[in-house]
Amino acid sequence: MSHIxxxxxxxxxxxxxxxxxxxxxxxxxxxxxxxxLREVTRAVGIAPTAFYRHFRSVEDLGVALVEEALGSLxxxxxxxxxxxxxxxxxxxxxxxxxxxxxDAHPAHVRFVARExxxxxxVVREAIRGQLELFTAEVGEALGSDPESAGWxxxxxxxxxxxxxxxxxxxxxxxLDATGGGAGxxxxxxxxxxxxxxxxxxxxxxxxxxxxxxx
Amino acid sequence: MSHIxxxxxxxxxxxxxxxxxxxxxxxxxxxxxxxxLREVTRAVGIAPTAFYRHFRSVEDLGVALVEEALGSLxxxxxxxxxxxxxxxxxxxxxxxxxxxxxDAHPAHVRFVARExxxxxxVVREAIRGQLELFTAEVGEALGSDPESAGWxxxxxxxxxxxxxxxxxxxxxxxLDATGGGAGxxxxxxxxxxxxxxxxxxxxxxxxxxxxxxx
DNA sequence: CATTCCAGAGAACAGTTGTTAACTGCATGG
DNA sequence: CCATGCAGTTAACAACTGTTCTCTGGAATG
Lengths: 214, 214
Fold this sequence. Notes:
DNA-binding, HTH_transcr_repressor_FabR (chains A, B), mainly alpha, homodimer, Homeodomain-like_sf (chains A, B)
């Protein structure tokens, strides 16, 4: 029961990480539901049976990938929502941060976008769970913003959901655009900024509506 | 070279449709990239080799499924954008239409949501192409709406894209919610309506912004 | 009626898959 | 220093995959 330990556990972690990395790379051209256990171990250079020392199945590995991919996304969200400045600055900064994340972790972005609606149930649910946490966090941040005075809880959450979905959509579009020249990327980033702007305008006038439910 | 013909071609179409139907059903629990040719023919009850009389590969069948799935979506979009009435009515009607489509063609909705970012390149591109057509169509409809007076072309297209993505997202969420009781469905539909409302508010005040680029 | 066409069947192929069992060698803990 | 734990190996399994070639029977054609 050595919570800290030496060469032994370190090597195991290394192999485990190699499996995750290899899987992520193989998933560039296919979905998780078609990823084979042998395929992964072959890429790592270990025997197929060694896989079971780390994961019970490929689905299990998929869930671990969810935690890795969305874990790296968590700090970015915190940064975005805590960014100060006027609306236009915040939007530009948000798009920049998303684009930076796509550049830094393209495979993670692809994995989440693909498996969010993918063919493996447990992975879908793991992603959904993480995204709900993000939504709640964003909703909380929005709630403590003076601009949200008078907003109901449900309205805050629907706005948070809109932001989270928009962020994922933008990340995925930027990833696809990476293949098509710098101009295409700029176009996608510009469109994403416009959409955030429109949402921002809607937010600013949300309580103006006749018959508001607040 | 009989362009019209009898029993022969009719039977072929029937088998072809059976392949499409079987594939769609098998795709409930997996992604296209893991769907096997033999798996499909087994479900239909024909020999594996007969598959090649209809499709060159499973990817090919996937492209055919895109046309089937998004073809059925086309008229619905036309209906939504041509709906008359005030903002709130239109939103309610749009959500109803989407919910109705999800009920009528759940497998199609699942297929599109899953394979839009899925592991098969040609299918992704086919879906992307169709969605761009939808976006252009919605953009055009928005342009001929008096409410869009003074809007630039790029702004119209970004709004259209927002609507199309929102529609798909809502459809997918409704599909997932189908498993979780009628209350869950109502909650999802309500949230979707709120989001459309916020976009609608943003649209109404889009040109109010200081330094508008129109 | 004779001929052609072609959707589907059948058999066989070389590869691949997940999973099992029994093993080896080395870092670990007493 | 010796016994244990355990990451990784090897071999073997039944089942499955996509694709080929050859064949068949019935509709279509003239």
